[in-house]
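Hi R.,

As promised, here are both runs. First protein below:
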Amino acid sequence: MSKDILTGLLLDEECSLTLGELSCACGVYAEWVVELVDEGILEPIGRDAAHWRFSGPSLHRARIVRRLQRDLGVNLAGAALVLDLMDEIGSLRAHLCVLER
């Protein structure tokens, strides 16, 4: 019987990652993360790539884009649209919860 050991990274809103840390956590080159920034998918804090810091939710967004590209062949513009729609659905669900109380 083999026992798999799972490892993970738990990040919250206040945690921040460098460009290198984010690219490593996603298993991609830093240039790919820069493309996400250029497309408006990620919004780092900092004046240039050497000083960029990304929030915990940025990691989640980048991983979603990675899966969309890998599994479905979605380009960055399509991935940005998917993320916008997912954000809108989340907002509508939260609004609905408030109204149902």
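And here is the second one, sequence first, then its structure tokens:
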Amino acid sequence: MTGTSPEQLRDRLASGFAGRIFLSSLSVLYSAAMAGRKALYGKGIFRRRRLPVPVICFGNISAGGTGKTSTVVAVALELARAGRKPAVLLRGYKRKAAASSVTVLAKGRPQIFAEAGDEALMLYRMLEPAGVPVLVSSDRYASGAIAAEELGADVLLLDDGFQHFALERDRDIVLVNATAPFYSDRVLPRGNLREPASALVRAAAVIITHCEQVSQADIDALRAEIRRLAPLAEIIESMHSPETFINAATAEQTDLNSLKGKQAVALSGIGDPSSFEGVLKKMKIDLKQIWRYPDHHIFTAGELAAAQEARAGLPLVTTYKDFARFPAKWQEILTGGVLILSVKIVFLCNGWKTLMRIVDGAGRKAD
């Protein structure tokens, strides 16, 4: 493992009594600031604006990976298949452009990928075949207006915007990670919660992700807590399932069993690296080396060179999100090749129909 994440720094502070008091005090201040901000929007002191087409927000109440990207992609592709014209809006973490400027990734538009950020580029690569544009800006109203008025989008999917109160939306869909239940967590920076769990009351639906990694008793306990906090929300269960390996150099698909019973190394810089590594281990892959970097980490040539030397010729497996942040000349460094694990989200029982009913309901509301 390498790199120092904010969570590791927090854990170091929390190991001592004085550090715990300090972090808890900051959490109180953070909670108060969040409550005050929500109140200002609720009373109309801060302006909330509405776009001319339906907006469905996919977000969470905690920092770290919950599976939003997989869900947004699945919904966007389904809408496109049904003849709708979706567009995805996101902030664009660590992109090389002014936060409030709008970067448009769409067919027929000039594109500067460095200005979009790694998440936007990853999303666009997955959605481009279906013609779904991705727009990046901290000003989600401005990007949404371009999507609706210039690109003809008739429904907007807001990626990671549950705490973005400046934009009105028709539905809020919240994802929670079953492996990191919010009821045993605390508000930032003492814990990982972006706001108190009571915020779930705003959700039209709560999707429990990574159900495959916990017991049914854990899922039942999480459902009960969600129901207590959000009695009117639909509760949907889902799991993440490996789909295929993709050769990063050729884009060719490789059978998942190609590494079964073999040795490999794993590299990631995501919010929930244990889930990624856990999937590989369940596939009977013997991980001889694991490199974990902080979420959204931009990989350098030196870091890849170090991994190349340490991998000892073994296959290197990473994620879509991480590969998007490799330096331009990565192939000259990782001469043994790279495999990208493609993972799809699978909704249990009638969860997919329930989710799309909620999304379509927002569309009918606007008609």
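A quick note on the second one: The chain has eleven helices and 13 strands. Let me know what you think.

Best,
J.
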